[in-house]
Design a protein that fits this description.
The protein contains eight helices and 16 strands. Strand 3 and strand 4 form a beta hairpin. It is an alpha+beta fold. Strands 9, 10, 11, 12, 13, 14, 15 and 16 form an eight-stranded mixed beta sheet that branches. It has a four-stranded antiparallel beta sheet with strand order 1-4-3-2, with no helix packed on it. It has two domains: about 70 residues, Roll (Spermidine Synthase, Chain: A, domain 2); about 230 residues, 3-Layer(aba) Sandwich (Rossmann fold).
């Protein structure tokens, strides 16, 4: 772990990334705004471009492999991507007995959520809405995460999620699981962290369906904070769901994901009803996920439990 360092910074913008010189080496820097932390990586830049929607960069690290960076934030790293993708998919799909399931993925251009969703035969359809085709193309070329876009169950929509949701409401579509696999709330994702979009999205949730959101969680002397609060005026999705009474039944689980800010990552389930996901209904084992880690993920420290109260 000698090639990764944490630094304390103060009063930096939300997003800033650059290559800096340290001990005569090239270092890539990710800064996490008002939380005042930074991730430094001694990494080679394999590819960098500005697409129609965002800055895209592919890094290569000797120990951690290839890394996808969007608008200065690490999105997926070959070394640990399986942790996030398995926990985001298998807990909601295996914590509830689905005879058949329809899944909507908002974002997910690296392909990992799609890959894990297609593992399960009871998933009869997967709709993936990604605004930036270049993220898919570059992820396929460099990361090799292997989301199978040719599976007959998959419908890939290259468009803005807000536009898709409006059309889906008109067409009276519904989904059993909606996974928000988004970048941080800047750039093309900024309009998706709004009351208007979330209010519309909840109309696509089936009677026994759910929405999964996730975010980095920080602890400070004032308590716990969500990364998304940086650009939403201090409101997180839990508060919005409760305040507007959209999907008021909320549960939470967590995982340690080293390359995400703070490494402590929370997953949040929103539903119309009290859906208990804490006991897996099928015996499935992935690279990270298994029934034991499923149960353990719902054991929260006291400072996180109060978020659900």
């Amino acid at each position: 772990m000698g090639d990764i360092r944490l630094m304390v910074l103060r009063h930096q913008p939300l997003i800033l990334f650059e290559v800096v010189s340290l001990a005569k080496k090239k270092w890539w820097k990710e800064r996490v705004g008002e939380f005042g932390v930074s991730l430094l990586l001694n990494a080679q830049s394999l590819h960098r471009e500005k697409s129609k929607y965002q800055d895209i960069e592919i890094l290569k690290h000797d120990q951690f492999g290839k890394i996808l960076v969007l608008d200065g934030y690490v999105q997926a790293c070959q070394a640990d991507e399986f942790i996030y993708h398995e926990m985001a998919v298998h807990v909601p799909l295996l914590g509830y007995r689905h005879q058949k399931a329809s899944v909507l993925i908002i974002g997910g251009g690296d392909g990992g959520i799609l890959r894990e969703t297609l593992v399960h035969d009871f998933v009869e359809s997967v709709t993936m809405v990604e605004i930036d085709r270049r993220v898919i193309e570059l992820s396929n070329k460099f990361l090799g995460i292997q989301g199978n876009y040719n599976d007959p169950r998959v419908s890939l929509e290259i468009e803005d999620a807000a536009s898709f949701v409006n059309t889906a409401i008109i067409d009276k579509k519904s989904f059993d699981l909606i996974i928000l696999d988004l970048t941080e709330p800047v750039g093309p994702s900024a309009n998706l962290f709004t009351e208007q979009f979330i209010s519309l999205l909840t109309q696509l949730v089936s009677e026994k369906g759910m929405i999964l959101d996730s975010d980095s969680i920080f602890i400070s002397k004032e308590g716990s904070h969500f990364l998304q609060e940086e650009s939403t005026g201090g409101e997180n999705l839990i508060n919005l769901m409760r305040r507007k009474k959209l999907l008021p039944k909320i549960d939470m689980y967590r995982a340690n994901i080293p390359f995400f800010p703070g490494a402590d990552f929370g997953f949040f389930i929103y539903s119309h009803n009290n859906i208990c996901l804490r006991e897996p209904v099928l015996n499935f084992t992935g690279k990270h996920y298994d029934p034991e880690i499923h149960r353990a993920a719902f054991v929260l420290p006291k400072w996180q439990r109060y978020l659900l109260e």
